[in-house]
TrEMBL record:
Belongs to the beta/gamma-crystallin family. Residues 1-16 form the signal peptide. It comes from Tigriopus californicus. SUPFAM superfamilies: gamma-Crystallin-like. Residues 130-217, 548-635, 786-872, 1021-1108 form the Beta/gamma crystallin 'Greek key' domain. Pfam families: Crystall. InterPro entries: Beta/gamma_crystallin (IPR001064), G_crystallin-like (IPR011024). The keyword Glycoprotein does not apply. This is Beta/gamma crystallin 'Greek key' domain-containing protein.
Length: 1120
């Protein structure tokens, strides 16, 4: 067989400047010269040499691979053990040095090993202000750099290491547009403009791999200093070296706040805040003066040694004054491990208010110099006149407003100005945190609740031995001398025990035990006996039957928690909730976006009459909204209802009892009835065709085991009926989907049927494939007037439905497909309030009220553009959908998705893959082919479309030359050589690359398709093909996929974009694995794996895939 590959001509060496020079207005006074690096193949700067002035991603192309033994640095330079800056192996060695003509010999770890090199900062001066982010630690992998403010990054959540050059600090932020958690990163010396190196994720703390925007200057109280070395007088020996395994002390000398603003009056303030502490009582021994936050005293060799201090300002033991001194008593002597001040750094009398996470000013802090209309956490107020601090040390001091903070604020006072201190009468030595939640308001339903929540745990089985009654959260049971000794407990309320401290926050693979009831006692079995290290309750402290919703960072209720007693239009920690517990009698609605917008789900308690809790323990229980929840409302305002898990009390039992045990290996058995109505009943009185239901069977001819659906079923696995359906009887309008949650991938197979007790066998394309199902229209009658809009073609993905006019749809610009039910037409509009382009969508039969099915191509210019709808026809542009008339007794039909792919950035809410909005995706995919050589003769252009039969375009066996934009595959036979795998194929890619076919392929092409995303061939996409040379069936993925439609698949593959992919031999990322790479990660050129041998041991054995490299075996594509 003959297979041809054509590629765009490319430069063989990537020597292009990666960075532009600084703008003309940049100060040049501090900069001696442009950056360059002289390297030699012998120590002592001897032997062959090379001068490097720009990035070199492969030194072999410069004839200097694995040769460098010494270098002279001018600027900031990094050398890497592997090509492409260690992009394909972030565990390889790296070396960086900086200075002005600083020369050094390499040690054995890097000698003769450098394979790529690049500089950091501006090319025309390492002292210019820049910030440089790197994909891996020690400045390896992909890089993003900025000369100025950047409200959004090309690659979001990047930065496991950072280099700051120049004289200015930079502020990095968790979210776009300078929002979320922030840190200031400083150069090593702001006067001399020396660079600073944040080499490891630990240097960046919480923001490692979480940075989404940056500003030049310091706008955060949280300041982190990197690592550098002081220069000699002449900068001749100024450098810093890191190898991969280097171990460096991390010092936390963070300046926690900016000085107070200049317009604030300083008249009441004598001097900046400072604290001088001594090793011995009476201010004797070794001393240290602090003028900033010290989150750890270890770097000062002062941990647990302080016996006395002198205060200027307000500091936390707690003491304050102007020169006031104090010797600690036995309760605090030699115990201090961290310290900070309160108020402004340049004057404790400046007007500030300071909030703390826990009592006695412990934990996270928020402070304000001015009005704050919105807090990161809860809302509080302040009042100010005089200038002496006042301390609100316990929740009881704050009354109703006490939540998770104590306040240090300025209040009126008649006390004269004196030098003194205020010392708290009691300081807890262990973290016996105050109640983590406020009690419910008095008007809350208390009649159903017998008592407050508490948990009694024992060191021996049978509720014997050493024990403790817990009334509140306990993040570390060692504080109670109960760590890893608990063998039995009695539950009153809802309690969760964790294998590790801090609720398994640092290990989501650890075990969990959840129990609830009233006086329910149990012994732990061997899988959890003597494991518990932390414990907390869920719900309100004064009654587990109070209405609450509780969100958790990890599955099985692990990690960080957010809870709500009432509506919350915005969360403190956005997009939280891998697991949820609902308590009380009321359901709750969760939403994808702030202010109750976006995709929604109703979460119900397990029993609304008895107010039994419901547990959503895993992301799969929450479907599309797992880790995507941003707001919540009490009550059910969505048609999509999801039931969690619980265990009901036994009949006649006097005690409620429930326990679920979780581990990383196996979760609880899933059980769900899914029998609550998803949609309200229609308010119209005309006959609606009867309630909708669906009877399905696991054998043809409506035989075998069966199931009746009366409502949405997002996962048949919860009903033990996944991939079992062979026949169904339709009463109403029902859609069955190949995947859970109604094909969120928007590409899998669909079967749509409707009628009144219409029965049908599934054809071979859909037999034993159904994994979810839902109806369209009103639950009490498919003939009631409704319009149903879907984010995907063939009625896949998220859905919105309307019984009446809607001037604004919940999800704007929706509608790749629609179903019209009832007798009335509907008008859909481009803009809100019935404005813009309008089209009328009609039912199939307005007399008999038969439904109409409107697909993507039927909507013309309004696909994914619908913003409002009205019942009735108010447009001259009328669209009739598709249906099957009553002469066939309302037969169903199989609607398997078409050949087109969704865009990488779809306009619908069911966004596929990452929102890499800033990523350069390359040109959108198109190909223009000609019947003659050299782009002559008859021509045809194909845009973002797969054509399985070119005869439909009158171009079969005509193509003699083509021009490619993107990655395109042409085949000798129809349907991509399906069944004819010995036929020729042709692969071409590039941007405007044109070629003439030779005689072996000219005039042969009968089908054509592209690889990758339609709107950009450089977006990250993995495509696997049934046969070699990209022939036959295709499966493609924009993101991780745990299970394929076709298992053990892939004799060939194409990798689009910049990212590597990991292929696995088994489902759920199990079994043998390999990494495959694109052709060029820097330029995002595609990688072609044309034969099974190119895929190593996994040729035709792939069953799941994950974006990124997580395997030790790595394969690069053969040169094509």
């Amino acid at each position: 067989m003959k297979v041809l590959f054509a590629v765009l001509a490319l430069a063989t060496v990537a020597l292009a400047a990666k960075k532009s020079r600084m703008h003309p207005y940049s100060a040049k006074s501090n900069q001696a010269e442009n950056q360059y690096l002289d390297c030699y193949d012998y120590s002592g700067q001897g032997g062959a040499n090379i001068r490097i002035t720009d990035y070199i991603e492969n030194l072999a192309q410069a004839g200097f691979d694995n040769m460098a033994s010494s270098c002279c640095f001018n600027g900031v330079w990094m050398l890497y053990d592997e090509p492409n800056y260690n992009s394909r192996n972030l565990e390889a060695a790296s070396y960086f040095g900086w200075g002005e003509n600083y020369c050094d010999d390499f040690n054995p770890d890097i000698d003769n090993k450098a394979s790529s090199v690049r500089f950091s900062g501006a090319p025309d001066g390492y002292k210019y202000d820049t910030i440089n982010f790197y994909e891996g630690k020690f400045f390896m992998g992909q890089e993003q750099y900025f000369y100025d403010d950047a409200p959004q990054f090309n690659y979001d959540n990047l930065g496991r290491s950072v280099i700051v050059t120049g004289c200015s600090p930079w502020t990095i932020y968790q979210y776009d547009n300078y929002q979320g958690y922030s840190l200031c990163l400083y150069p090593a010396d702001t006067s001399q403009c020396y660079p600073n190196f944040y080499a490891q994720p630990s240097d960046l703390g919480f923001l490692s791999d979480q940075v989404s925007s940056t500003r030049k200057g310091c706008f955060s109280k949280n300041i982190v200093y990197g690592k550098t070395m002081e220069p000699s007088i002449d900068l001749k020996s100024f450098m810093k070296v890191f190898l991969f395994l280097s171990t460096l002390a991390v010092t936390a000398l963070a300046s926690s706040r900016p000085p107070f603003f200049p317009q604030v009056t300083r008249s009441n303030q004598q001097e900046n805040q400072e604290l001088q502490c001594y090793e011995f009582p009476s201010y004797e021994g070794i001393a240290y003066r602090f003028n900033d936050y010290a989150p750890s005293l270890s770097p000062f060799d002062f941990d647990n040694v302080i016996s006395s201090c002198c205060f200027n300002g307000a500091a936390v033991y707690s003491g304050w004054g102007e020169g006031a001194c104090f010797t600690f008593d036995a309760t605090f002597d030699d115990k201090a491990s961290s310290l900070r001040f309160a108020g402004a750094p340049d004057g404790y009398k400046q007007d500030t208010i300071n909030f703390y996470e826990s009592k006695y000013f412990i934990g996270e802090e928020q402070y304000f110099y001015d009005d704050a209309p919105q807090f990161n956490f809860d809302n509080f107020g302040h009042d100010t006149t005089e200038c002496y601090p006042s301390f609100y040390a316990e929740p009881t001091d704050l009354g109703f407003l006490a939540s998770q903070v104590s306040i240090l604020q300025h209040l009126p006072s008649e006390v004269a100005m004196i030098s003194h201190f205020v010392c708290l009468a009691f300081m807890a030595t262990t973290a016996f945190a105050s109640s983590s939640k406020p009690y419910m308001y008095p008007q809350s339903r208390k009649s159903l609740q017998q008592e407050n929540q508490y948990l009694e745990c024992y060191a021996e089985p049978g509720n014997t031995g050493k024990h403790f009654r817990f009334l509140d959260y306990a993040p570390n049971l060692a504080s109670y001398d109960l760590d890893n000794v608990v063998s039995s407990c009695c539950f009153n309320g809802i309690w969760i025990l964790y294998d590790e401290t801090d609720y398994n926050s640092n290990n989501f693979g650890a075990a969990v035990y959840n129990g609830w009831g009233e006086g329910y006692c149990t012994d732990f079995d061997a899988t959890f006996d003597n494991l518990a290290s932390s414990v907390r309750f869920s719900g309100a402290p004064d009654g587990y039957k109070q209405d609450t919703i509780n969100f958790y960072e990890g599955k099985y209720f692990m990690g960080q928690e957010q809870y709500f007693y009432d509506d919350a239009p915005q969360f403190d920690a956005d997009n939280l909730g891998q697991s949820v517990i609902v308590t009380g009698c009321s359901p709750w609605t969760i939403y994808e976006y702030d202010n109750y917008q976006g995709e929604s789900r109703c979460l119900y308690p397990s029993d609304t009459a008895n107010c039994y809790p419901s547990f959503y323990a895993e992301p799969s229980d929450l479907g599309l909204l797992a880790s995507q929840v941003s707001s919540t409302r009490k009550g059910c305002f969505s048609k999509n209802i999801v039931h969690g898990k619980t265990i009901y009390p036994a009949n006649g039992s006097s005690k409620l009892q429930h326990s679920l045990q979780f581990s990383a290996q196996a979760g609880p058995v899933v059980g769900s009835n899914l029998d609550d109505t998803k949609k309200p009943f229609s308010k119209t009185q005309e006959p609606g065709g009867g309630n909708q239901y669906l009877d399905c069977y696991d054998y043809f001819g409506q035989s075998g085991q069966s199931i009746r659906l009366t409502d949405y079923a997002p996962s048949f696995s919860q009903l033990n009926f996944d991939n079992r359906i062979s026949s169904c009887c339709f009463s109403g309008i029902w859609i069955l989907y190949d995947r859970d949650n109604y094909n969120p991938d928007l590409t899998s197979a669909v079967f749509n049927g409707w009628g009144e007790k219409y029965c049908v066998d599934m054809d071979s394309n859909f037999d034993n494939r159904a994994s979810s199902a839902r109806f369209a229209g009103a639950p009490d009658g498919y003939k009631y007037d409704t319009i149903n809009l879907y984010t995907g073609n063939y009625f896949m993905g998220a859905e919105q439905y309307y019984y009446d006019d809607a001037g604004h749809v919940n999800y704007d610009n929706l509608g790749r497909s629609a179903i019209i039910t009832g007798c009335s037409p509907w008008t859909v509009y481009q803009y809100d309030n019935y404005q813009g382009i309008a089209k009328c969508l009609y039912p199939a039969d307005t007399i008999n009220c038969y439904p109409s099915f409107v697909l993507e191509n039927d909507l013309g210019g309004l696909q994914n553009q619908i913003s409002s709808v009205r019942r009735g026809c108010f447009s001259t542009d009328v669209i009739h959908g598709k249906t099957i008339s009553s002469q066939d007794d309302k037969k169903g039909r199989s609607l398997v998705t078409g050949t087109n792919k969704p865009k990488f950035h779809p306009m619908g809410l069911m966004g596929l893959g990452r929102d890499d909005t800033g990523t350069q995706g390359g040109t959108s995919q198109s190909v223009r082919c000609y019947s003659g050589p050299n782009q002559s003769g008859q021509q045809i252009e194909i845009n973002q479309q797969n054509i399985e039969d070119l005869s439909t375009l009158n171009f079969d066996n005509l193509a003699a030359s083509c021009c490619f934009n993107g990655v395109w595959l042409l085949y000798d036979d129809k349907t991509y050589n399906q069944g004819h795998f010995d036929s020729p194929a042709f692969s071409g890619w590039g941007e405007g690359f044109c070629t003439t076919f030779d005689t072996t392929f000219a005039g042969l092409a009968s089908s054509v398709r592209y690889s990758g995303a339609p709107d950009g061939y450089k977006f990250d996409v993995l495509t696997l093909y049934e046969s070699n040379y990209f022939m036959g069936k295709e499966q493609y993925f924009y993101d991780d996929v745990t299970q394929f439609d076709f298992d053990n698949f892939g004799e060939s593959a194409i990798v689009n974009g910049c990212s590597s992919w990991t292929l696995y031999a088994e489902k759920n990322f199990q079994g043998d694995s390999i990494c495959i790479y694109p052709g060029d990660q820097s330029n995002c050129y595609p990688g072609f794996f044309a034969n099974p041998i190119d895929l190593g041991s996994l040729g035709n054995r792939v069953s799941s895939a994950k974006r990124g490299c997580y395997a030790t075996e790595k394969l690069i594509p053969p040169g094509i």
